[in-house]
């Protein structure tokens, strides 16, 4: 088990666009394992590679934290047998439908939460670490995490989805996070 430090808002790596995974190396497998360990340790429901400083297109989701009714569809060998965690390599969002507004947070923004509007249904296609296709479609919290983590691979953060008014409201707390992050 290896927990890696989580990069906090203000770290420029969170704004980079991640590059596609071209092959599964031993280092990539280790990264995926460490991301799962890091997510569990931080009690998160998802974690994207840039959040531990690696700008590759991969994220992990804590499926054990999702209620069964949030799963609308799933396919692929890595989703057989109800795994607790899922590793998605080179994910693509292939469907977004409806709308939901709810509290959202991010492990890169400790103790900061705000209401974010997201699609209510999200479908993602990806591969697993063995290059086998996987697909997952979810609603509610599962849809929210699938698209939130995808955003990280584009350098997009949840605060980018806030209204100007809310952003202004949180401005001082964001400034403080940024200052603390750059002081490290
Ligand atoms: Ni996040």
Walk me through the structure.
This protein is an alpha+beta fold and 184 residues long. The chain has one domain (12-183): Alpha-Beta Complex (Peptide Deformylase). The chain is 27% helix and 27% strand. The chain is built from three helices and eight strands; from the N terminus they run H-E-E-E-E-E-E-E-E-H-H. The longest helix is centred in the C-terminal third of the chain and has 20 residues, at 164-183. The protein is globular. The two termini are 24 Å apart. The relative contact order is 0.20. The structure holds nickel (II) ion. The site of nickel (II) ion has 5 residues, from helix 2.
List the ligand species: nickel (II) ion
Give unreliable regions as ranges.
none
What is the tally of beta strands?
8
- Going by helix content, strand content and strand pairing, the class is alpha+beta
State which percent range the strand residues make up: 25-35%
What are the main properties of this structure?
single chain; 184 residues; alpha+beta; Peptide Deformylase; six-stranded antiparallel sheet; two-stranded antiparallel sheet; 3 helices; 27% helix; 27% strand; globular; binds nickel (II) ion
In short, what is this structure?
The protein is of the alpha+beta class.
Task: Outline the secondary-structure elements.
Blueprint (H helix, E strand, L loop, with lengths): L25 H16 L4 E3 L9 E5 L8 E5 L9 E13 L2 E5 L9 E5 L2 E7 L5 E7 H14 L10 H20 L1
Antiparallel strand pairs: 1-2, 2-4, 3-8, 4-7, 5-6, 7-8
The structure holds nickel (II) ion (NI).
The site of nickel (II) ion has 5 residues, from helix 2.
């Amino acid at each position: 088990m290896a927990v890696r430090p989580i990069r906090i808002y203000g770290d420029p790596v969170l704004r980079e666009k991640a590059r596609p995974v071209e092959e599964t190396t031993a280092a990539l497998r280790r990264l995926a394992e460490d991301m799962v360990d890091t997510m569990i340790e931080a009690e998160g429901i998802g974690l994207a590679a840039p959040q531990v400083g690696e700008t590759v297109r991969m994220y992990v989701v804590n499926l054990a934290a999702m209620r069964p009714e949030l799963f609308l569809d799933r396919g692929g060998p890595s989703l057989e047998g109800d795994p607790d965690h899922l590793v998605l390599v080179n994910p693509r969002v292939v469907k977004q439908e409806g709308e939901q507004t709810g509290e959202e947070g991010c492990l890169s923004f400790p103790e900061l939460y705000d209401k974010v509007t997201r699609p209510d249904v999200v479908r993602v296609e990806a591969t697993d670490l063995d290059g086998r296709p996987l697909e997952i479609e979810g609603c509610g919290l599962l849809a929210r995490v699938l698209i939130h983590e995808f955003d990280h691979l584009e350098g997009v953060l949840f605060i980018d989805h806030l209204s100007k008014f809310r952003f202004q409201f949180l401005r001082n707390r964001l400034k403080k996070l940024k200052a603390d992050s750059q002081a490290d």
